[in-house]
């Protein structure tokens, strides 16, 4: 059964995105929901037995589980209050559940396989249930490339982080600018509720664009915008400069709408643009408001609301 909780907003968003993407010759895609499992999942937790190979702490275990244990059911999902992030979703053992910006929610799809899935173990859909604080209609599942079923919240595939060693850890928050703790709504957990892209008035640089986490957005002078977006940041470059994933046009504030669109990179990842220029964050920025990427290599610059590189030589 497909979820329909966002169907009305998706129609409006799809129309807006289609109108914008024609500016650079891109096409929009249609979306579907994920299968709902929240209302029918059997009660789980530490007492449920996973049928997935590699289960690290089974029904007879009395030790605190490790988040890196593969195949362990989430059990009864709960909502915890975190001083830094506000309300976050945890499994029955108190481990934080994360979402990945390179995944998609409409339709649900996981992009984390191989070594990625060792660091970020996918949370199985089997055995998951809802204790309180989460709308059951948002809880579903997606079939991974290997045929296993992964838990989703609002369409977003759920993961644990191998370096979270005890309940309440949020060591995966913000890793590579693409991994974030999950709010009960399926959105990224955050005390502040910024739009997907907005404008901040920096004391040195003036008006610059930031993402929904308040992190500074950058442009790479070696990229191209016309006749279509082209990113020349690939391979190891992306470790330092993670791409900004597409956001809906109505989830922005103060940013020029012309050429505000997403495109598909040669590696298959989705990336956002401003005025058709690909945009990124910087791994060297550790907190909102930092601009450590400004001027790096003479090719990386913060972005003005109209898509121009702030501080670049003319």
From TrEMBL:
Residues 44-70, 291-314 are annotated as: Disordered. It comes from the Bacteria. Keywords: Lipoprotein, Signal. Residues 1-25 form the signal peptide. Pfam families: Lipoprotein_15. Transmembrane segments: none annotated. NCBIfam families: SCO0930_lipo. This is SCO0930 family lipoprotein. It comes from Streptomyces gibsoniae. The lineage of its organism: Bacteria, Bacillati, Actinomycetota, Actinomycetes, Kitasatosporales.
């Amino acid at each position: 059964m497909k979820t329909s909780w966002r169907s009305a907003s998706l129609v409006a968003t799809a129309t807006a995105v289609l109108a914008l993407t024609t500016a650079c010759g891109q096409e929009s895609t249609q979306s579907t929901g994920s299968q709902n499992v929240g209302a029918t999942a059997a009660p789980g937790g530490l007492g449920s037995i996973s049928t997935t190979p590699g289960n690290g702490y089974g029904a007879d275990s009395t030790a605190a589980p490790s988040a890196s244990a593969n195949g362990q059911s989430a059990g009864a999902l709960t909502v915890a209050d975190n001083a830094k992030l506000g309300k976050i979703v945890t499994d029955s053992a108190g481990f934080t559940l994360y979402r990945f910006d390179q995944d998609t929610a409409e339709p649900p799809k996981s992009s984390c396989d191989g070594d990625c899935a060792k660091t970020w173990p996918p949370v199985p859909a089997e055995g998951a249930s809802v204790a309180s604080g989460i709308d059951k209609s948002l809880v579903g599942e997606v079939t991974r490339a290997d045929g296993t079923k992964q838990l989703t919240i609002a369409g977003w595939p759920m993961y644990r982080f191998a370096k979270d060693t005890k309940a309440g850890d949020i060591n995966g928050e913000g890793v590579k600018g693409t991994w974030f703790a999950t709010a009960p709504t399926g959105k990224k957990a955050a005390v502040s509720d910024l739009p997907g892209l907005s404008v901040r008035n920096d004391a040195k640089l003036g008006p610059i664009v930031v993402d929904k986490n308040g992190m500074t957005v950058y442009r790479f002078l070696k990229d191209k915008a016309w006749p279509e977006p082209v990113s020349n940041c690939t391979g190891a470059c992306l470790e330092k400069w993670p791409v900004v994933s597409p956001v809906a046009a109505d989830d922005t504030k103060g940013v020029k709408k012309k050429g505000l669109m997403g495109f598909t990179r040669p590696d298959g990842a989705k990336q956002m643009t401003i005025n058709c220029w690909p945009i990124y964050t910087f791994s060297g920025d550790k907190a909102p408001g930092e601009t450590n990427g400004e001027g790096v290599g003479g090719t990386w610059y913060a972005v003005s609301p109209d898509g121009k590189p702030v501080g670049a030589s003319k």
